[in-house]
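Appendix C reproduces, verbatim, an entry submitted by the partner laboratory led by Prof. M.T., so that reviewers can inspect both the input and the predicted structure.
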Amino acid sequence: ASLITNAVEGQILFFAGDLAGSEESLHRTIDLDGNFWLSHLFMRRLYLKRGEYEDAAAAARKAAELSGGSSEAIATAAVAEAMAGRSDEARKLLGELSERAKHRYVPSYTVAQVHLALGDVDKALELLERALNDKEALMVFLKVEPKWDAVRNDPRFVIMLERMRFN
């Protein structure tokens, strides 16, 4: 199987709740090519889910490095740093994303996750609303992505899911 097929399989298994299968698929991908950045990006989800914030931050940083600076990888590193209690480091990475956004596209969805991890629910939901209005591709994961669990019951989030016909 190809690298992308294995990595996407790992992501799908994660969203389906098969964490062991997801981990197996992603490790198989890393064994095939340790420099394939998406496998590290997807591994950080497993680490975050298990509360392994150091490993999540390391996987996200590796994905950022290997990808040439993917905004999603930088954002997920910031999320892991915030969850590990290092909000200063998370804010530094958020600043990097803000600087980057002055020169190239940075999805609102990507930035929203950092604000949520830092406890700024209003800003996170405002950015998700912008992502919805802009029809950002990552919004397809809104219903299943665990990073949004903290706002699942917020009426603003529920309305977004309804607008997307996810509820």
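The radius of gyration is 15 Å. Additional entries are available on request from the coordinating office.
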